[in-house]
Amino acid sequence: MNVYQLPSGIIQTNGYLITEPKLAEAVLIDAPGDIWTKIEPLLAKDGCKLTQLWITHGHWDHTQGASEVVEKTSAQVSAHLDDKVLIETPKVMSKFLSEEIELSPVTVNRWIKQGDHLPALGTEAEVRHVPGHCPGNVLFYFSALNAAFVGDALFKSSIGRSDLPGGDFNQLEHSIRSQIYTLSDETRVLSGHGAETSVGLEKKTNPYVKPL
Ligand SMILES: [Zn+2]
Fold first, then answer.
1. How far is the CA of 109 from the centre of ligand 1 (A)?
2. Residue 40, helix vs strand vs coil
């Protein structure tokens, strides 16, 4: 499997393309604006078809490119029900944005929840619910990749904002401790913004959330 970190859109949100050339299949985690222009050549290079789009949470910068991706690929979309309003009616976020940012709704095919296992790429990913930055933030943990795609819950040496609508610091702290810091120290943490980190490194050095 190949994992591509693809910062895209006006605030360089990370989308992650995971390809499995042996099965000619690919999964995209988050769809920031303009992500299609980045994934199209990679899908061609690896000879893969995008079959699924998994959304970590409903903030506009993670979903802005989703309708184009779905139109081009017919990928099936999965997201958590707690972000249904943000994903299906993104104009509710427009009061926080400048006017030229265009948002189009995305149709979700499958609502996912804590403990679901999503088969993909000849393996599966576990869904863990990590609210606190956004009510429907989930992470996707692939044991086969030793990697967790965490959206905006946790960043290298930082954490997601908890001052946006639906955010709550205590809830975020609990999510990180119970759902991320319980993964093995070697687990790669791939966040919605910025560089990769690991569970062990954040447990040791994150200035905002310490393990219990
Ligand atoms: Zn966010």
1. 21
2. helix
Task: Name the 3-class secondary structure at 180.
Answer: helix
CA of 161 relative to ligand 1 center, distance in Å:
8
Residues bordering ligand 1, an ion, CB closer than 5 Å: 59, 152
pLDDT digits 0-9 by tens, 48-88:
999 999 999 999 999 999 999 999 999 999 999 999 999 99
DSSP code of residue 64: T
H, E, C per residue of 18-42: EEECCCCEEEEECCCCCHHHHHHHH
pLDDT tens for residues 128-148?
999 999 999 999 999 999 999
Q: Is the dihedral of CA 53, 56, 58, 61 positive or negative?
A: negative
Å from CA of 121 to ligand 1 middle: 26
Query: Could you give the C-alpha distances from 67 to 103, 163, 176, in angstroms and in order?
Result: 9, 28, 30
Q: Beta strands 138-142 and 123-129: pairing type?
A: antiparallel
- How far, in Å, is the centroid of ligand 1 from the Cα of 152? 5
The total of other beta-carbon atoms located within 10 Å of residue 196's CB is: 14
| CA 35 to centroid of ligand 1, rounded, Å | 17
Q: How far, in Å, from the CA of 168 to the mean position of ligand 1?
A: 13
Q: Say which residue the tokens 């403990």 belong to.
A: 115
Between the CA of 57 and the centroid of ligand 1 the distance, in Å, is 7
Q: How far apart are CA 155 and CA 24, in angstroms?
A: 31
Q: Does domain 2-205 have CATH number 1.20.58.60?
A: no
